[in-house]
Amino acid sequence: MPDSHQFQYVRSHEDMSLVLLNASMTSFSYGTHSHEEYSLGVTLCGQQNFYAQGQFQKSHPGNVMMFSPDDAHDGSPGDQQTLTYKMLYVHPNDLAPAFAALGIQNIDSLRSKTNVFDQPRLRQQILRLATLIEDGSTRSDEYTSGLFNLAEELVVSFGEQNTANILQSHTGLERAKSYLQDHYADEVNLDTLASIACLSKFHFLRQFKQYTGMTPHQYWLNGRIARARQALARGIRATDVAHQLGFNDISHFNRRFKPIFGITPHQYQRLIQPQ
Fold first, then answer.
1. pTM here?
2. Residues 31, 260: contact at Cβ < 8 Å?
3. Nearest to 42 by CA among 75, 19, 10, 64
4. Which residue stretches, if any, does this entry annotate as coiled coil (predicted)?
5. Could you tell me if 89 and 35 are in contact, meaning their C-beta atoms sit under 8 angstroms apart?
6. Which residues belong to CATH 1.10.10.60 in the chain?
7. Largest CA distance in the chain
């Protein structure tokens, strides 16, 4: 079977920062990364294998995949069949009003210990919202209704059973995370991070990896790529983004961006920019 992969990103045409990925691949493998958004997807064909939350997981056709913000994961096809799936990226700010209306104040209460589910009703809401994004004439109120229906199904599916699974916050590690987020364009020293977290260097490395699913360097690079994606969506040229965010050159930027999004920054920008 020839190696091939195709990634198509579609952005909603209203104020909400909704992004849909239509993906098809036979051999491409994502590097370990996370997103600032909720990632809500449906496997359509083939099998997707990934490592997340300390365990290997598999998504089969019809399964729902859900990654909360900052859930570190990778991903690759799991068999000889071409893997195809749809993935929605929904920023927490876009879901917050619906969650508040549904009585959910702490979004972390919707986290689950696994990332793959057999949830037909949730699958239906994800695919409905995907259809709205693919339809270039969708109105703002249709997006709002679609988001509310999705949020409602998330609360029904996960709101009660997972309240005991909320991640325990570690103040020192949260300070280190905030520092990395604020200094995404700077080279960051491991000794500085360990000092911020009030831990020895090696204790910090171990605990940070357990807490976030990524090494400090991976987390820092992931934040840099997230800012790069935002800049590309605003229309800033890929070469300028690379310079502003401290990548050595456009080739270095391409090498870091493609393992997370499957395409180069320039290709991503062409897909995500309004026509």
1. 0.75
2. yes
3. 64
4. none
5. yes
6. 171-272
7. 55
Q: How far apart are CA 192 and CA 259, in angstroms?
A: 28
Residue 169, both tokens: 């916050």
Please state, in angstroms and rounded to a whole number, the distance separating the CA atoms of residues 236 and 269. 9
Smallest Cα–Cα separation from 186: which of 227, 151, 240?
Answer: 227
Q: Is the pLDDT of residue 69 over 80?
A: yes
Check if the beta carbon of residue 27 is closer than 8 Å to that of residue 13. Answer: no
- Average pLDDT over every residue of 172-197: 90
The CATH class of the 171-272 domain is mainly alpha
Over residues 8-24, the mean pLDDT reads 85
The number of residues in the chain equals 275
In terms of CATH architecture, what is 5-165?
Sandwich (2.60)
Q: Give the C-alpha distances (Å, rounded to integers) separating 127 from 10, 20, 64, 200, 274.
A: 14, 10, 10, 47, 22
- DSSP alpha helix (H) spans, 11-139: 92-101, 120-134
CA distance 193 to 200: 10
pLDDT at 80: 85
